[in-house]
Here is the input.
Amino acid sequence: RAIRPYPPANVKINGEYFPDEIETDLVLTWVDRNRSQQTGGSIMGWYEGGVALESDVTYQLVLVERDVSDIELRSQNINLNTLNTYTFPTSAMDANTRTIEITLKSLRNSYECYQPFNCTVNLSEFYSAPYNLSVVFKND
Here is the structure.
C-alpha cells in the first residue's frame, strides 16, 4: 500500500549480505529509502546507496535468540529511531544462543513497511584445542 514506508535497504550483517554464520559481535548496517523522494524515473535497487530518510520514519529491530534445539531463549524489540547501524555484542547474548533471527523494519505513523528485512544467522562455536596431545614421529 502506498501509505506504508519503504523498508530499509542494502542491509549488511558484519559487512556481508546474508551470511550463514558470524564469529564476533552482530553488527547491522543499512541505508534509508524514501517514498516521496523516489517518485520519478526508476526505483532504486536494494543494493544501491541511501537517500534522505522520509519524515516520521523510524526503524525497529527484533532479535530472537534460540538455542541448539531451536527453543527461543530471548526476544528483544528495539526502537532504533533513525539510526542506520546497530551492534549487538556477543557479551550481551545469552550463553546458550546458537542462532539469532533478525527482523529489521521501518515504521511511519504506526504503519509498518510491507517487506521487512529478515535473516537468521548462526553463531560460530569455538572449540579449544585439546591440551594433552602428544606427537610421535615414525620413520616408515
Summary: The chain is about 0% helix and 40% strand. The mean pLDDT is 89. The longest strand covers residues 57-66.
